[in-house]
Amino acid sequence: MIRCNFNDLKVFRDNLDKLTNAEYDRLAKECCNEIAARLLRMTQKNTPVATGTLKRAWNIEPAEKKGNVWVSVIYNTADYAIYVEYGHRTTNHKGWVTGRFMLTNAEKEIERIVPQLLEKRLLQKLGEVFD
């Protein structure tokens, strides 16, 4: 005859039940805000500085839930930001100024580190629940 003790499994189930949808949403919002803040810092770091206006014009909107997805928007209010980002023709229309890809390069970099950030935050949250 085989005997099994499921007390630990029941404790595990009870601890998982402590994580409500509100706590999942709070964790997702915190993660989204953290990732967006890091992306903003990387983008500002990549931004060329002549007068500093372009660098100071980067802004961020707090995370907001849209459907099942958390969204945070990073934008630049400088009129000429898009031309610095992607490039533009010269004023005499005979040449091309290459873009600096400040946000594009920062997005590529953040995509590389997001899984580690999320894993760290999730393990931290699970540690809080199970302690």
UniProtKB/TrEMBL annotation:
- Organism of origin is Monoglobus pectinilyticus
Write down the superkingdom of origin.
Answer: Bacteria
What is the name of this protein? Phage protein
- Which Pfam families does this chain map to? HK97-gp10_like
